[in-house]
Write a structure and sequence with these properties.
Radius of gyration of chain B: 18 Å
Shape of chain A: flat
Number of domains of chain A: 1
Mean pLDDT of chain B: 86
Oligomer: heterodimer
Number of strands of chain A: 0
Strand content of chain A: under 5%
Strand content of chain B: under 5%
Shape of chain B: elongated
Number of helices of chain A: 4
Distance between the termini of chain A: 30 Å
Order of helices and strands of chain B: HHHHHH
Helix content of chain A: over 70%
Order of helices and strands of chain A: HHHH
Amino acid sequence: MNTIRSILAVSALLVILFTFILISFNPGYGLFSFGHPEEKSWRIALYKYYIENGANLSGGANIVTDIVFDLRGYDTLGEATVLFTAIAGALALLRRGGAK
Amino acid sequence: MTRTFSRIVETVADFFLIFIIVFGIYIITHGHLTPGGGFQGGVVLAAGILLLLVAHGFSFARKIPEELLSDLEAIGGIAFILLASLGFGQSFFYNILWHEKLAFAEQVGRFFSGGAIPLMNLSVGLKVVAGITSGMFALSLFGGEES
């Protein structure tokens, strides 16, 4: 059982490494790699777009809430999931008459 | 029954709890207009309840209904996901209340603007209040049960 698990873990690690190598040797990826001037202009274009059009896109005057709850809503969903999991773990360990 | 602090501390904590709760509700409901939001306002409200817990001690912590807190947290999370899935015609997290002018669709800067964002702030605030309060009470009861 342990050998099967270790084989699975090593193969999963190899698949992840292989995917990263494949992505980073893709010729389209180098166009937006870190520090490339093209990438910098695209990054600036993105946040300028958010600042200029965020209020019309999502309707809130507070741009941070616009981004967190509308434009990047999946991030907030993940945060809520993390909070829920942390509280559930703490309550399962610490409840009255719980784990001795 | 052992008293943690004197009656003066308890009275002052009860008095200032009102202002902390008003401030937290303001931060939650005005999250789309001013700095703040569901997470921040929820933590402010939970800090107010923590002040009550510190002032009143373990006798107060035993009176808390745990089922109500877990129900509130579940309602907050389910409401958040339902509000996000309202826009399934376009995509998940599509703000259909704002784009189709269904509700909360006044001019930007008014209170009833932002579409689903104020409702999401409310649900996340409810979730954070219930979660952090139940976590605090679990921790305090775990310390006080032995003595």
